[in-house]
Request: fold
Amino acid sequence: MQHQRPFARFMPSCFSSLPRTLAVLPLVLAASFATAQQEPPSAFPLDAAGYLNEELPRMEAAVAARDRSFFHGAMARTVQFSERWGFKAKANPELAAYGMCTSAVMDYVVVGMCRLTPGDEACEPGLAPRFDANVRQCREVAARK
Reply:
């Protein structure tokens, strides 16, 4: 019998393990880049900071409640946000200057899942501090806009 991670029964198959989620998120985001939105790239940091300001308290509440089901919706919202902006430089090269914001948005779901299962092999020690630094830098850039 194959061993499943504890949260596997609460998540759809694409979320059955954190390593799969880490692998799937960039692929899902990459598939959505062709539909980048039409706002000026300079508006991206403010939008990204607003997105994170809205999502992070929800994530913290889900972690505190041990609500693993929250992350399915969080992943969908992250994909929708990325579709509006065309994250990758190939789809929207002007966003390359705001890597701290794109990284923070892309890492948000994974960081939350790692807070639920910190011992998972996919939860590298530097992920959370790098995420926190990216969120802080993104907010600083947004405050200047």
